[in-house]
Write a structure and sequence with these properties.
Two copies of one chain form a homodimer.
Chain A lengths: L8 H15 L6 H8 L13 H13 L11 H18 L15 H17 L6 H21 L7 H20 L5
The structure holds a DNA duplex (19 and 19 nucleotides).
Chain lengths: 183, 183
Amino acid sequence: MARPQLIDRDAVLAASLEQADTGGLESVTMAAVARRLGVTPMALYRHVEDKDDLLDGVVERLLTEVPGPDPAASWEDQLAAIGDSLRAIARRHPSVFPLLLQLPATTPASRAARDQVYGALRSAGVPEETVPRLERVISTMVLGFAASEASGRFRQHSRRVLDGDYAELATSVRATIERHVAT
Amino acid sequence: MARPQLIDRDAVLAASLEQADTGGLESVTMAAVARRLGVTPMALYRHVEDKDDLLDGVVERLLTEVPGPDPAASWEDQLAAIGDSLRAIARRHPSVFPLLLQLPATTPASRAARDQVYGALRSAGVPEETVPRLERVISTMVLGFAASEASGRFRQHSRRVLDGDYAELATSVRATIERHVAT
DNA sequence: ACCTGAACACCGTTCAAGT
DNA sequence: ACCTGAACACCGTTCAAGT
């Protein structure tokens, strides 16, 4: 005899992310997530393998918040859009965001974001054999900065100062790319 | 009546770091650290405030592994020495290293490392008012890369590929600095 | 002064039982 | 098929007691 399904994996991950945003990463317990869903902790195990799987799912969810590409935009604007959105995501989800740097870049959402950067680099004129390397280097710069900002490494600096830092970083990213474009 | 002192804070932090290097961050429990020291878990509380303080101490310890400055070296070589040593530290302590990006940059060891970069930027000819910004930007690049490498974001890539990525990043760092040096 | 034993609240996870 | 109750091993932390 089937029961009405109260929750699914997506609801579990959404509740976990809300909990992390509200109370920090260490407040994300099976009990707290379950309470948010009006269910017992044991009910979660039908939808996630264990707590590690739950956390992986939450981190993956972060990348789905990156908007799709705008093919009409210049490569500079495409990259700026991705960078800005990553920075905004980090600010919305400061306790989860740093985990992005610790996860293998092989999940579907992470591939999607990466392919978007590949596209921008190609239309900038970067030779095909250099595209993957440049993607790794510049995504490390942007992810590292957004994670630093979100996790409080720069907590003593004002938003204005950090915006200036980010502008400097963006200039370095563009210069790195242009160094590989034959003129 | 005094007892012989079996452990001190430094021994606790050293044992914690060993435990993290051997079994990963989640294996660092008060019980595991205490066992390594031949003591009960409760004994640790005389030397660290709580587990957060213990972890902070371990992360801080990481930065003390950065060697001091060599005043005879060029600014390029000075920065390369710091970058190389950070990368080596990340490889020695992969599970703890990523926490560096999440800690406020205000601890003594972190100030020491920062001042060393300040010195190199000054001798490169970077104007004084630009020195702090450039330090934040380039340390973010290097820390972000070392953390990515250590934590397995790039685990599918060989050491040779990652060395190439690092060389590209180092070139970007030098270019970023030179952009701010009047010629 | 420093460490231990006992105790507590909390955590992730399992398994059989209920609908 | 999906959720719950009971149970377990483990975790961080406290406090009074021992030397």
